[in-house]
Amino acid sequence: MVPTTVSTALADRPVAGTVCLEAGAGTGNTTAGLLAAGADRVYALTDDPEHARLVADRFADAGDRLATVEADLRECPLADDSVELITAHALCNLLEPVALEAVAAELTRVAAPGAHLLVDDYAPPPEDAAVGRLFAVENAAASLATGRPALTFYPSSVLRAAFSAHGWTVDRELTLLDPVPWTASHIEAHAEAVRSAAASLSPTSREALLAELEGVLDDIEPESVGEMYGLAMRY
Amino acid sequence: MRTRPLGETGQESTVMTFGAIALNWLEQEGADQMVELVLDRGINHFDVAPTYGDAELKLAPKLGEYREEIFLGCKTQERDYDGAREKLEASLDRLEVDHIDLYQVHGLEYESELDEITREGGALAAFRDAKDEGLVDHIGLTSHGNPQLILDAIDRIDDLETLMFPMNPVVAGKEGPDHDYAAVLERASEEGIGTLGIKAFAKGPWPEDLSEDERPYANWYEPVDTPEETRERFDFALSQGLSSVINAGDPKLVAMALDAAERFEGEMDDPAQRSLIERLRHAESPVPEQLHH
Ligand SMILES: C[S@@+](CC[C@H](N)C(=O)[O-])C[C@H]1O[C@@H](n2cnc3c(N)ncnc32)[C@H](O)[C@@H]1O
């Protein structure tokens, strides 16, 4: 299943016959879109071993058109100038500014001259969005557990600037979702992220965070707010 | 209420078509009131069928009063000449009218049925004769079935003027030829065929643990039943390019559909359509593992 966000972002890019990198593969939705659109080869890269396994299983019959790579994008194992199309679909919100800078440098290094880059991400949710409170708890839990926030929502202008600094030029920007539907299943997945970060903390911090989380969950309803944008760039 | 051309029939149909199956669950007095209500709100296209219980009979009194204001669609599930002719005459009788504006092949499901209706001695021959006699003005087809079958029907029935088929964000979000009603809409528009949307308000099948008499609505699927969702579904369906959208069958939901139709201002933009498709897809997904879209 290729979500409409992914198919829309890929629709005006020349995917067929290219070597692609899905930067931050997750469960492989963009990999699915790239394979369906005729990519020659897709490197589905993620730092999450479970995601890597999932993607490998999901596309077991893609043969050598797909290589699942478990690595950190801040030190990407691909060679210089080796990919013609890079997708970062819902990746950047997981990168705090320092990591974003390192990833932008690495993606630029592996991009062949003339390569395409797709950056799809969420604009910062509006001030009054209830999901904003959930994301704040998630960031508090992650910061305590790892020293880094879990989520950073960049306005598209910030991501444009981050990549422009490395020589990318923006081809187009479109709105993929407006509003963004945060469903019960998204809320539950983010709540689970809080619980799992909290699990590694001292009992006091853990209980405080879980109490905070319960408070948020009591008030929150699925809501459609904010925007997801799609940037397409050339190198 | 806004109108759109129903293909090349010359009819300008309101963006909502009244699905008169709703009358089946009302007493005659209530049925009369409902017809008055939908006419009051500007609806000019009605759709009925002999398989909708008493709907034809209950529509008849008010139809007699307002026949000129109503573009009347009816249909038959008969596939051969004699059966179709008989059913047409029965509908004319029950509806107490001398002609039906749009007569449709009802619920085409299999290729073999397409063979049956198109052959000599098939239902379409009866439709055409009725048209020559002035009993029927236009010929249409309805199907819940495979879009490929509908495309074949377009190819094989030269005088086809309207199509009725499902359209909603759940269907629109599914991939592959089995759900490609977008292709049907495109072909229909190329061919000047009018398009009527059904199941626009379908949420999904009824939960399996709910027995038929426990269902709150008399629909064969679970419908959306809030004003906001009804509006979203209406706007979405119409934004796919349909000529008109038919209300969910339960009479309790008709007023909500009328409100949605009346408030329709213009097509939903693409990001909002995708938002609805993705929301419903995630709502259906059993495992909450997705953090993103
Ligand atoms: C939200 S998912 C992306 C969704 C996916 N692109 C899709 O289209 O379905 C984010 C992915 O990026 C990975 N990720 C986050 N930071 C990373 C990093 N520094 N290096 C490599 N992968 C990273 C996560 O493990 C996860 O697999």
TrEMBL record, chain A:
- What processes does the entry annotate via GO biological process terms? methylation
Q: State the Pfam families in the record.
A: Methyltransf_25
Cross-referenced SUPFAM superfamilies, in alphabetical order? Answer: S-adenosyl-L-methionine-dependent methyltransferases
Q: Could you say which enzyme class this protein belongs to?
A: transferase
Every copy of the Methyltransferase domain together lies at 21-114
Q: Give an example GO molecular function.
A: methyltransferase activity
InterPro entries given for it?
A: Methyltransf_25, SAM-dependent_MTases_sf
Name of the molecule in the record: Class I SAM-dependent methyltransferase
Q: From what organism does this protein derive?
A: Saliphagus infecundisoli
Automatic annotation (TrEMBL), chain B:
Q: What class of enzyme is it?
A: oxidoreductase
Its EC number is 1.1.1.-
Q: Name one Pfam family in it.
A: Aldo_ket_red
Task: Domain (NADP-dependent oxidoreductase): give its ranges.
Answer: 16-207
CDD domains (alphabetical): AKR_unchar (cd19100)
**What molecular functions are annotated in GO for this chain?**
oxidoreductase activity
Entry superkingdom: Archaea
What keyword terms does UniProt attach to this protein?
Oxidoreductase
* InterPro entries, sorted: AKR2_Oxidoreductase, NAD(P)_OxRdtase_dom_sf, NADP_OxRdtase_dom
What this protein is called in its record is Aldo/keto reductase
Organism in which the protein naturally occurs? Saliphagus infecundisoli
